[in-house]
Amino acid sequence: MKCLGIEATAEKLGIGIVNIKSEILTNITKYKPLTTGIHPREAAQHHAENIKDLIKEALQKVELSFKDIDLISFSQGPGLGPSLRVAAVAARTLALKYSLPLVGVNHCVAHIEIGRLKTEARDPLTVYVSGGNTQITAFVSGRYRVFGETLDIALGNLIDQFARTANLGNPGGPVVEKLAKEGNYIELPYTVKGMDLSYSGLLTAAKRALNNYSVEDVCYSLQEVSFSMLVEVAERALAHTGKEELLIAGGVGVNRRLQEMLNSMADERGSGFFTTPENLLGDNGAMIAWLGILEYTHGKRMKPEDSFVRQRWRTDEVEVLWR
Ligand code: AMP
Ligand code: MG
User: How far is the CA of 8 from the centre of ligand 2 (A)?
Assistant: First the structure.
């Protein structure tokens, strides 16, 4: 069995093909480089213009045609409505045209499952940090429960918005990480509320600090404060759930300083520490295809008329049939 997965929740369009033996046959991503924040309509237009060729390219790369595909899956949510609709329309059309089963999957759960597939982590607490999401989850009582999350903007969005203000380009993550190596600590607001995080005040303060401190100092302190907040919540979630593994997922997870901080916390607790392989950390089609296979082989079925997009679909609303 082979599943073709379509990812389109934000600015990236991804196509992946995965087989039932969990081998990733192909995984390609395309996006228009950004100079500003994501413009939802323009992102959707980019995806609509490129999706046909990207699917063709994915199939050609591994010398497959639709005759060899058994299942279509797509990112049904959460995400930006216009992007999600491109994935949904394409998936529905292909399913109807080639008489293939269709499953819409949850993007956040896909990040967790590709991490579990490609690392030794079996039952981790997952720290999922990306451009649009910041969530600490663990599998408890049949679902991925959320043990902490951002109350406003995502960690990646904090870094990207700051970087645009400081004229560091887009995406901001890699540049901020590099500049942070040369910086010293300045005080910035640290906001953890119960088990949740708030990054918007930190963003305002970091932008303001650019008037009085070097960009290196602000980058360093922005990372130290925002990552420490995440480590604090993750540590309490580990203690509460009793999980013995910590997994990083999402594009911000490539950050070495973040990895180091989470790793040292996990180490001190005697927990295992795992990072999703770098090529699968960011949004991609393979994770959507893999979750499609997991769901379909465990009984999930979806009629095309039920394949509407779910912009605010929460991780803990997904019934996990495969665990
Ligand atoms: P995703 O939404 O999962 O595709 O991830 C994209 C996000 O990862 C963007 O917000 C990037 O700024 C962020 N990112 C990429 N590289 C790094 C890095 N080295 N450090 C921190 N964030 C990063
Ligand atoms: Mg993502």
Answer: 10
2-107+283-317 and 120-275 agree in CATH topology? yes
Cα(318)–Cα(111) distance, integer angstroms? 14
> For position 32, what pLDDT does the model report?
85
Nearest atom, ligand 1, residue 111 CA: 3
Say which ligand is closest to the CA of 162. Answer: 1
120-275: in CATH 3.20.20.70: no
**Predicted pLDDT at 238:** 98
Kindly report the number of other CB atoms within 10 A of residue 24's CB atom. Answer: 21
Q: Which residues have any ligand 1 atom within 6 Å of their CB? A: 12, 130-132, 156, 159-160, 171-174, 177, 250-252, 254-255, 282-283
Q: Which atom of ligand 1 is nearest to the CA of 163?
A: 12
Domain boundaries, the chain: 2-107+283-317, 120-275
Pocket residue to mutate for ligand 1, from 153, 159, 287, most atoms within 8 A of Cβ: 159
- In the predicted structure, residue 164 carries a pLDDT above the cut 90: yes
The per-residue pLDDT for range 259-299, each reduced to its tens digit, is 999 999 999 999 999 999 999 999 999 999 999 999 999 99
- Whole-number pLDDT of residue 105: 98
pTM, rounded to two decimals: 0.97
User: What is the model's pLDDT at position 68?
Assistant: 98
Phi, psi at residue 248, to the nearest 5°?
-100, 135
d(CA 206, CA 189): 9
CATH class, 2-107+283-317 region? alpha beta
What phi and psi, each to the nearest 5 degrees, are found at residue 128?
-105, 110
What is the dihedral sign for C-alpha 238, 240, 244, 248?
negative
In a mutational test of the pocket of ligand 1, which residue from 35, 170, 252 has the highest number of ligand atoms less than 8 Å from its CB? 252
Mean pLDDT of the chain: 97
